[in-house]
């Protein structure tokens, strides 16, 4: 517990981090014009009661324009893999990759979703 409290003091807690996601997306789009970003949120319920003016992180997708442009020169095969996120809020970081003609791996797009499924 002491380790978790120290990490929260240094980096902020999970709620703080998730609240910074919209600003992060804006920063990505301003630093890398043409970046494709989509953030989806869900209504927040306290038990069975809907909390107004409050939403909950659902999923996020982003792709950098340079990666999208480079994908035009890759082999026509895309692989998607994920890694589980651990902590208070679980989820999966998905990365779509392709191979160029030199067999180098190129990341195309990224997403954080609730589970690794066909829908996600």
Average pLDDT taken over every residue: 88
User: How many angstroms separate the termini?
Assistant: 33 Å
- Indicate the proportion of strand residues: 35-45%
Count of helices? 4
Helix content: 25-40%
Summed up, the domain count is 1
Q: Structural class from helices and strands?
A: alpha+beta
Largest sheet geometry: 5 strands, antiparallel
The total beta strand count reads 5
Shape: elongated
Question: Using only CA atoms, what is the Rg?
Answer: 17 Å
Please explain how this structure is put together:
This protein is of the alpha+beta class and about 120 residues long. It has one domain. The protein has four helices and five strands; from the N terminus they run αααββαβββ. A five-stranded antiparallel sheet has the order 1-2-5-4-3.
Annotation keywords:
42% strand; five-stranded antiparallel sheet; alpha+beta; 120 residues; single chain
What's the short version?
This protein is α+β, with helices and mostly antiparallel strands and 120 residues long. 28% of the residues lie in helices and 42% in strands.
Chain-wise SSE layout:
Elements: H1 2-11, H2 14-19, H3 21-31, E1 36-46, E2 49-63, H4 65-71, E3 79-85, E4 91-99, E5 105-113
Antiparallel strand pairs: 1-2, 2-5, 3-4, 4-5
